[in-house]
Amino acid sequence: MSSSRSNATLPSHPRAAACDEPAINRLLAIMARLRDPETGCPWDVQQDFASIARYTIEEAYEVAEAIADDDMPSLCDELGDLLLQVVFHARIAEERGLFAFDDVVAAISDKMLRRHPHVFGEASVADAAAQTRRWEDHKAEERAAKAAAQGRAPSILDGVTVGLPSLTRAVKLQNRAARVGFDWARASEILDKIEEEIRELRAELTPERPAARREDELGDVLFAIANLARRLDIDPETAARSTNAKFERRFRRIEALLVEQGRSATDASLDDMEALWQVAKAEEKTDTSSR
After folding, report:
1. Do 7-115 and 166-234 fold alike per CATH?
2. pLDDT digit string, tens, across residues 190-215
């Protein structure tokens, strides 16, 4: 493990660090102070790997949102928030004697060198597609080595993280299976599968059928839809976020139109709101066509 950074060596205030000190050192010092059991922040001291994991995921999504919005000031800010999560996890690990931030940096640096022999070694690749295949080969070798160390046979599905968003994980599982030929040949076949799964879901929509069966069949529908997205080269999470934004935009317009009528969504009927939904939808189409 890298040598621990003792709180005793920290400046009385992180801003007091020398101006030529690497910026990351200042952040590491701030986190060490926040985690000090006697003088730190009670909330920060209380956290562990599990309790901050959801914040790490949220920050990654906020980075993606800033990119989607082409908001560079926000991207800079959100990348800082995400970096803080890495520093937070590394600090907890260092306190437990597991590893430190320097070990995290060393591990990813070694991995990049190992996976890019065409840049840092003597190997060569013809193009980006060839590099992608080489990258996957390197990762497969690493997964096989890990499986061997654990005394088990490797699986083509090894390393597909359980903590990923479900649709993203579905696509990754499907991509792995496709490498060994377990895949539909055409998008139309996946559409047929979606229709089949919907029929099976319909069959479970009766009161006497257990809720677990409906959940299972709905999961099959979602998995098949993720497969269609993969075949069409569409990220299902991006598509879902776009539709969420569209729904929010149109529903807020419904609320605004109701306010103009002196009403609110709570006293409008479903038919009223559906009619206003169509108005909001038409307005968007008109606005798009006028550009």
Report:
1. yes
2. 999 999 999 999 999 999 999 999 99
Helix H segments across 150-232? Answer: 166-178, 187-203, 211-231
- Classify domain 7-115 at the CATH topology level: Helix Hairpins (1.10.287)
Is residue 214 within 8 Å of residue 41, measured between CB atoms?
no
d(CA 33, CA 249): 43
H helices of 69-126, in order, are 72-95, 101-115, 117-120
CA dihedral 81, 75, 139, 241 (to 10 degrees): 100
- Token output for 245: 């934004």
Q: Which residue do the tokens 């798009």 mark?
A: 288
Architecture of domain 166-234: Orthogonal Bundle (1.10)
| Phi-psi group of 262: left, alpha or beta (phi > 0 → left; psi -120 to 50 → alpha; rest → beta) | left
Q: Tokens 């959100």, residue?
A: 78
Indicate if the pLDDT at residue 6 is higher than 50.
Answer: no
Q: State the DSSP H helix or E strand holding residue 233, giving kind and residue range, or none if neither.
A: none
Dihedral of alpha carbons 158, 164, 165, 168, sign: negative
Dist CA 272 CA 269 (whole Å): 5
